[in-house]
Amino acid sequence: MTDLESLRLLVLVGELGSLGRAARELGIAQPSASKRLATLERGLGLALVDRGRRGSALTPAGVVVTERARVVLDELDRLTESARALRSAQQAELRVAASMTVAEHLAPGWIGELRRTRPELHVGLRVTNSETVGRLVREGAVDLGFVETPGPLDGLSTRKVAVDRLAVVVPPGHRWVRRRPTTRDLAATPLVVRERGSGTRDTLDRALPDACPPALELGSTTAVRGAVVAGVAPAVLSVLAVALDLADGRLVEVPVEGLDLRRVLRAVWPGGRKLVGPAAELLAVAVRRSSMGT
């Protein structure tokens, strides 16, 4: 097979009229250039260069080969430039999907830090439930996902990025503020819950497998929070989502003895694939900020 760098050397010899100058242009020693040119001539079965005291000149066969070589090398340069442009475009775009808790309370800080070092980077964030995040990652619709579901994630690689805690919350006048409920009370009480497929719902269902049917099922944490504030029913929500409501007294956290609602928030990407580029950089930011408690 003809060596492309040997073709470049041949073209330069024709343009510069000197093997030594062509070698310097390519950054190689003249003996190496001479050996490379000889190997090319043997491979093609043609004498390509006449070497003389005043320099080197292409033979008639060398002229023909050089003309063809220029076409090949020009096409290669265009291919390389196209690949570089495509790579730059891919590196300038990062597609992310995140469950609602992560998307509303953690991902904006992670993305903001990444863009301070990569201001040219465009990041698209899709906000959905954990089940849909997993599907989008498996289908290749996004480069990186963040989920809060506690269950196994088939076909995905995962990395812990944060720890979250769910809390039972009620409005200030609720009876549970005065008398703390048991897990039996909680399971027997219709709650305002997220839709199935939500990580928050999955965590609650695992903690209370015998819970009664919900009072209301809603598709966003904000809607659940609003229903609790309005007095519809208690709910179990991430402390990240209700921190301001708890601080301002709109909601009250009710401890339930023996109920552990801590959960791990995870990054996900296609199983068996190494995470590279902006996706790997965003994951590194998320892990670092989590370790710092920010």
TrEMBL record:
Superkingdom of this protein's organism: Bacteria
Domain HTH lysR-type: 1-59
Keyword flag Lyase: no
Keywords, alphabetical: DNA-binding, Transcription, Transcription regulation
Gene3D superfamilies: Periplasmic binding protein-like II (3.40.190.10), Winged helix-like DNA-binding domain superfamily/Winged helix DNA-binding domain (1.10.10.10)
Keyword Transcription included in the entry's annotation: yes
Stated family: Belongs to the LysR transcriptional regulatory family.
PANTHER family: HTH-TYPE TRANSCRIPTIONAL REGULATOR (PTHR30126), HTH-TYPE TRANSCRIPTIONAL REGULATOR CYSL (PTHR30126:SF39)
Protein name (record): LysR family transcriptional regulator
Species of the source: Saccharothrix mutabilis subsp. mutabilis
